[in-house]
Design goal:
By secondary structure, the chain is mainly alpha-helical. Helix content is 80%, strand content 0%. The chain has one domain (3-84). The chain has helices spanning 3-17, 23-33, 43-56, 63-116. Helix 1 crosses helix 2 (23-33). The termini are far apart.
Length: 117
């Protein structure tokens, strides 16, 4: 997130908690966020963190809050993606197993019919 986006993020916070946002505030947040999370926090992640924070909190959002919320959102995203991949693999496995079972049953039936002739 660049400084202009950070200023917009801080303005969103100010709309909720009436903080003063000036060049020093933006520079301070920029310095504290730099390298705190890898990859750097995107504007969309920051905005989502602010929205999530102020839905449940009445205090001012601090840098540590944003870092924690972004890390938690990233962990949740990874968990959701892994869960979806496991589900897809399970569906594919069941599909292959089902085809194998049908094929084996078809072979048994065909063999039985041959024997009855």
């Amino acid at each position: 997130m660049n400084r202009a986006e950070l200023a917009k993020t801080l303005a969103l916070m100010a709309a909720n908690d009436r903080r003063d946002v000036d060049a020093t505030t933006v520079a301070s947040w920029d310095m504290m966020l730099a390298g705190a999370v890898t990859p750097d926090i995107s504007f969309d992640e920051a905005r989502a963190a602010v929205v999530a924070f102020y839905r449940t909190e009445t205090r001012w959002m601090m840098v540590a809050d944003m870092i924690q919320l972004v890390r938690a959102a990233r962990r949740e995203q990874i968990t959701r993606r892994e869960s979806e991949q496991l589900h897809q693999a399970s569906v594919e496995h069941r599909g292959r197993r089902g085809l194998s079972a049908i094929s084996a049953a078809d072979i048994r039936n065909a063999t039985a019919e041959e024997g009855n002739r």
